[in-house]
UniProtKB/TrEMBL annotation:
Coiled coil: none annotated. This is Methylmalonyl-CoA mutase family protein. PANTHER family: METHYLMALONYL-COA MUTASE, LARGE SUBUNIT, METHYLMALONYL-COA MUTASE, MITOCHONDRIAL-RELATED. Keywords: Cobalamin, Cobalt, Isomerase. InterPro entries: Cbl-dep_enz_cat (IPR016176), Cobalamin-bd_sf (IPR036724), MeMalonylCoA_mutase_a/b_cat (IPR006099). Its cofactor is adenosylcob(III)alamin. Belongs to the methylmalonyl-CoA mutase family. It comes from Bacillus lumedeiriae. It comes from the Bacteria. The keyword Isomerase applies.
């Protein structure tokens, strides 16, 4: 076919009903609703989306309200994003060397972990190329120190963002900030507004909530609630809403739910515009700085190289969502990180930039029926949740009464249950576990030498800055009102504890092994035996197979020879019927103190008969594998427990 003829070919338009009919035909007549799945945001995901299913296509162009498709008409062609992974260093001298190398190798901003270099002097800080590259740092407890250093430099050319979200920082500690802490924070941001007009210093960081289990709706709503808190708080100090907003930087953690994370960032801009409109703020002021870091919430110490995939997915979705800077976390962050981990964190965004050309397409996610629908549903749900929080008194009030903590805990519980029952997979952790891998030990965090706790005024603190003044010397310790802390725990931790326990048992000389009683020929028991092996390996339990047992006597002989504390019978349902409960009785007769399970689920009536003959339990798909393996390790350790 000639090229002109190919170009002339027309594809007939298919109606929505035809798409639906074709899809349902592949399901043998079942409804598409059988493929609907609910997210942690209580949004129903569908297998098929079209224009008819899309709620809102009002935002047709980037750079126009409500900015769903981005704050800038030209996207990254107009305002390029920055590659800003945090550089870890123990000393100020080493930081300068590592930062110099990082900038030469593709880093585009000054970003570092303040806590790790608390003894850095003002001289070392000022030696950084602060006027050449934007500054993107989370100062945590050391905001006043960094602010004092910046004020001494007095450069109007410093750009980027440096700040602490005092609300989320204190919430993570189980506090709400005191009036004294807020007063010092207000003095600092006021002084910085005059001295460094291009620097964003009011940070809204939803990372602690994200790591506490928050879903996308909660993250967006909390970000808005915190924004209202800062606007109202600084209004009392003489700031106008537009002055507060112009100094804001929103920082999100980006998880591994690819499409949801894209929609989260797009939905945030949409509701942010609505919030700004309610304060009478419009135009350029609405275009706040939005950045992201890849989440360690879904990181695992086990099979840590899988974290590279999680990081890659997170960076990809952050850039498609339209962030202005991205901080990729090293895949081995939990154990170091190593120089390789730091290099990979720096290079993943560069690969996406230079080989996937993410900076060359304006809003590449725009127009996707799926993402547009998800964005609309997220923005509506987040706005409603935000209104509820405001009606309850705002972010401080809902932290004090524990509402936020309870909501996050509920989502966290659901996330953990889904991993424990394997409704969701975490490769290398609750599926495809490497039995021979040792759990890496976390390196202890450096201790911070704190002094200067009696300083009462920010001006006094700033005046004390000398060339050799360290960040630690400018630390101001403060307490607030106690609340339920935002508990931050990685999803992989329960599985890591199982493996760590198995390793300790092995070091103590205990046998962490299970015997698999395999019924019939290989092709009949292999499927269930492989399943049991994979389940036990999650808890660090090795499996020893019996070989093909054709009779009850052969099974009993395997138990006698192997001398293990735990066995699991594996075979087809037909084999279970053939051998019957007498198999359990014979095995228990051989050694009555063993724990005996069966692979798969029996009917209630059949299971009752097997249990009467000595069966203790079963290993089956959908059970809480964390509880099951915890009980098994107890038994192998010699501790009696209920199954």
């Amino acid at each position: 076919m000639r090229i002109q003829e190919m170009k002339a070919q027309q594809f007939p338009k298919a109606a929505w009903s035809e798409w639906r009919k074709t899809a349902e035909a592949s399901l043998n007549g079942q409804s598409l609703q059988t493929l609907h799945t609910a997210t942690y945001e209580n949004i129903l995901l569908k297998p098929l989306y079209g224009r008819e299913e899309t709620a809102d296509f009002a935002d047709q162009y980037p750079g126009f309200p409500s900015y769903t498709r981005g704050f800038y008409e030209g996207g990254y062609l107009e305002t390029s994003w920055k590659n800003a992974p945090s550089v870890k260093s123990d000393t100020g001298t080493d930081l300068k060397k590592k930062m110099s190398v990082a900038l030469q190798e593709g880093q585009q901003a000054l970003s570092f972990v303040v806590e790790d270099i608390s003894q850095m002097t003002f001289t070392q800080f000022s030696a950084l190329p602060l006027e050449e590259y934007p500054l993107y740092i989370h100062t945590n407890d050391h905001f006043l120190a960094i602010a004092s250093f910046l004020l001494k430099i007095k450069s109007s050319r410093v750009t980027g963002a440096a700040g602490t979200d005092i609300v989320s920082l204190y919430a993570k500690k189980g506090l709400v900030p005191s009036e004294r802490a807020l007063a010092l924070q207000a003095e600092a941001v006021t002084a910085l507004r005059k001295a460094l007009p291009k620097l964003k210093t009011i940070r809204i960081d939803t990372t602690p909530y994200h790591e506490g289990g928050a879903n996308a709706v909660q993250e967006i709503a909390i970000a808005l609630a915190e924004a209202v808190f800062y606007i109202e708080w600084l209004k009392e100090k003489g700031w106008s809403p537009v002055e507060v907003i112009e100094k804001m930087c929103f920082h999100f953690a980006i998880g591994s739910q690819f499409f949801m994370e894209i929609a989260k960032l797009r939905a945030f801009r949409k509701v942010w515009y609505a919030l700004c409109s309610s304060y009478g703020v419009s135009g350029e002021a609405v275009k706040v700085l939005v950045g992201a870091e890849t989440s360690i919430f879904t990181f695992s110490k086990l099979d840590s190289h899988v974290n590279l995939l999680r990081t890659g997915s997170g960076v990809f979705s952050a850039l498609l969502g339209g962030v202005e800077y991205v901080q990729a976390v090293p895949f081995d962050q939990l154990n170091g990180p190593s120089s390789l981990g730091e290099r990979m964190a720096r290079n993943i965004p560069l690969i996406l930039q230079h080989e996937s050309y993410l900076g060359e397409v304006i809003d590449p996610a725009g127009g996707s029926y799926y993402i547009e629908t998800l964005t609309t549903e997220l923005s509506q749900a987040a706005w409603e949740h935000f209104i509820q929080m405001e009606a309850a008194g705002g972010i401080i009030s809902v932290l004090k009464d524990g509402t936020v903590q309870k909501e996050l805990a509920a989502v966290m519980k659901k996330r953990r249950e889904d991993l424990a029952t394997q409704k969701r997979s975490m490769i290398g952790t609750n599926s495809y576990a490497d039995l021979h891998e040792q759990v890496p030990k976390e390196k202890p965090k450096p201790s911070v030498s704190l002094s200067g706790e009696s300083i009462s005024l920010f001006q006094e603190l700033t005046g004390k800055v000398k060339d050799q003044t360290t960040i630690a010397a400018l630390y101001v310790k403060d307490s607030g009102t106690a609340v339920i802390p935002i508990s931050s725990k990685r999803l992989a931790e329960p599985f890591e504890r199982l493996r760590e326990r198995a390793e300790r048992m092995q070091l103590l000389g205990k046998k962490v092994k299970a015997g698999l009683i395999c019924l019939g020929p290989l092709k009949e028991f292999k499927l269930r035996a492989d399943f049991v092996i994979s389940q036990l390996s999650i808890g660090g339990i090795e499996s020893e197979l019996s070989g093909e047992c054709q009779t009850i006597e052969e099974a009993a002989q395997f138990v006698k020879e192997s001398q293990l504390a735990y066995y699991c019978i594996c075979g087809k349902d037909e084999a279970y019927e053939q051998f019957g409960p007498s198999l359990a009785a014979a095995v228990k007769k051989e050694r009555n103190n063993i724990l005996l399970d069966l692979a798969g689920k029996l009917s209630a009536e059949t299971e009752a008969k097997w249990r009467c003959s000595g069966l203790d339990g079963s290993v089956y798909s959908g059970q809480n594998i964390v509880k099951k393996l915890t009980a098994l390790l107890h038994r192998l350790e010699g501790v009696e427990t209920s199954d």
